[in-house]
Amino acid sequence: MFQSKLLVFFTLFAVLILSACGESNTPMTAVAAENKTYKWKLVTTWPPNFPIFQEGVERFAEDVKTLSNGRLNIKVFAGGELVPALQAFDAVSQGTVEMSHGAAYYWAGKIPAGQFFTAVPFGMNAQGMNSWLYAGGGLELWRELYKPHNLVPFPMGNTGVQMGGWFNKKIDAIADLKGLKMRIPGLGGKVFAKAGGNPVLMAGGEIYTALDRGTIDATEWVGPFHDERLGLYRAAKYYYYPGWHEPGPVLELNVNSKAWASLSPDLQKTIEIAAAATNLWMLAQFEAKNLEALVTLKDKYNVQVLAFPDEVIAELRRLSSVVLEEEAAKDPDFKRIYQAYKTFADNNDRWNELSEAAYAKARNR
Ligand code: CA
Fold this sequence. Notes:
By secondary structure, the chain is α/β, with parallel strands linked by helices.
């Protein structure tokens, strides 16, 4: 103890002497930047105390504080606490706050191509998305797309494959989707409409009541863990899989580009590594909590868990390509990123066929 204090004292002493003599290899401006403390704000799109989502962001802020030795303090606000949830993107873009957490497909009205950085129907799962973003050029495309909005995005969380949703009637054929009123957002909703369904947009807090009262016939939400918490098993009989519309949605951390540029390289690295760690933490949480909740839903609440029939999946898959092609024809960025995404996803499928898919089959033999 005494020795370590002595060591700290001598180190400080040496630094002071070296600085005074101008012998230090580190310029004074860099020393000043390294000692500067920052108080940043991060707004999320999630409700307060929302498990895994909001929880993960709060853990991220703690990690950054610890890793930076208290130099970078991030105060986290849930959706609506500082700015309305769906204004998080604008708040960071305009520099009102330094950071936000949400999902790129929330801004589809503004940046349709951003949807490739969350999830697209029949697109890549979490493993595929991580490969594309970290090692296949995806993140570079994402940064380029967000640059005009003064944002530096990072992948920070993934729900894994979601569930297909809750229904009160069996889906035996594509015709069973006709006229069905279902809460299903984004591109998945567009595909659902092409299949004859009636997609409805609705915030998480309203879903249970709407389904229970029959205002909607069906809904998707997240996966067993979050769906159980919402009590959806009390409002619908059948729980369908897989979540073809959201196969591995990526959650995003956005940093205002000017705020980002003001940080020393070590603090930038701290954010990058803490975001990657949170990305892994959230996916692991989803997987572990979903498998536990699935058992509860099946064994305790006797939920009928059913697979969409092959015929229904094949038709939804065909319609998904139609929707993606239509969107690509409307927007050059969408078209460009769709091509890059598709090339990677197609090759990923070919590799997956011999790796993950073949192994899953082998295990079940
Ligand atoms: Ca969902």
